[in-house]
Design goal:
Length: 265
């Protein structure tokens, strides 16, 4: 998984009237790490107004692909999602923006994905919506559901970015869900006792310097805290420390005895 996957996702603006919205969409995309913009029969493009609204995202506009039909814009795509300012404009599998972000992100690892946005005045036609696998509606104020086009692009691109960040975060190790775990997590006070025990043992071993144990203990705390130990795991670790201390104790005792043993003649 990498941010390169964003290359697999197209934002398709269909029949846009106001070039300012094209620029605004380009900027929204670049802010969130997306770059592939398709324009289906824009009313006025290229345009100064688009450049002005794009600000630092001129590269997205430069690379925008202008086509005549939605079919050309979605060619090669394995997932097509259509946005609608009205919920259930026609009965169709519906996603919310979060689900759309997650699905589009995960499927972009396998194939190209397109998200379609409609005309400012009348959205996408039914025929265009029928080309989509899913529809997505931003759950806005029911009394005023229609967002500005570039703003709608921003919301969906943000959800794509969140899905990417979430996937990246959990890649290092899936977050543990204690509802599905066989034992409860070790509690804070038990962990504190463990850290004291660990520090004591590491000092006895001569591994920690009594003058400056802090840095190493901080790193060890971070390590153990990160893995979310359960109660049994913690008790095993405590047992290992006790066994280590016993070993040190007996070894030291033997050494002391051998010092006092009468020397062989
Ligand atoms: N009067 C039009 C509004 C179109 S708004 C209609 O009723 O369809 C222009 C585009 O912005 C829409 O086609 C869609 O792509 C996007 N959009 C605006 N509000 C949205 C919302 N609440 N959810 C999803 N997309 C929205």
């Amino acid at each position: 998984m990498s941010v390169q996957q964003f290359q697999q996702i197209r934002i398709v603006l269909v029949g846009t009237s106001h070039p300012g919205n094209i620029g605004g969409a380009a900027r929204a995309m670049k802010n969130m790490g997306l770059s592939r913009l398709y324009l289906v029969a824009p009313k006025e493009y290229p345009s100064e107004k688009a450049l002005w609204r794009a600000a630092g995202a001129l590269d997205v506009l430069d690379n925008a692909v202008v086509v005549d039909s939605v079919d050309e814009a979605i060619e090669g795509c394995g997932l097509v999602v259509g946005t609608s300012a009205r919920e259930r404009r026609i009965p169709w599998p519906l996603l919310d923006p979060r689900e759309c972000g997650e699905r589009a992100w995960s499927e972009s690892a396998e194939h190209e994905v397109a998200i379609l946005f409609g005309r400012e005045d009348r959205g996408l036609t039914n025929e265009e919506l029928h080309k989509c696998n899913y529809h997505v509606h931003i759950p806005a104020n029911p009394e005023y559901t229609s967002l500005n086009l570039a703003t709608a692009v921003q919301v969906l691109c943000y959800e794509l970015r969140m899905a990417y960040l979430q996937a990246e975060r959990s890649e290092g190790g899936k977050l543990i869900d204690f509802n599905e775990w066989d034992l409860p997590p070790a509690k804070a006070e038990a962990l504190e006792r463990y850290y004291d025990h660990l520090q004591e043992t590491l000092m006895e071993l001569g591994f920690l310097s009594p003058d400056n144990p802090r840095q190493t203990m901080t790193r060890l705390r971070r390590l153990y805290n990160r893995v979310r130990l359960d109660e049994m795991e913690l008790s095993i670790l405590r047992g290992m420390l006790t066994a280590t201390q016993n070993y040190i104790f007996h070894t030291n005792k033997k050494l002391a005895n051998s010092d006092t043993d009468p020397k062989p003649e």
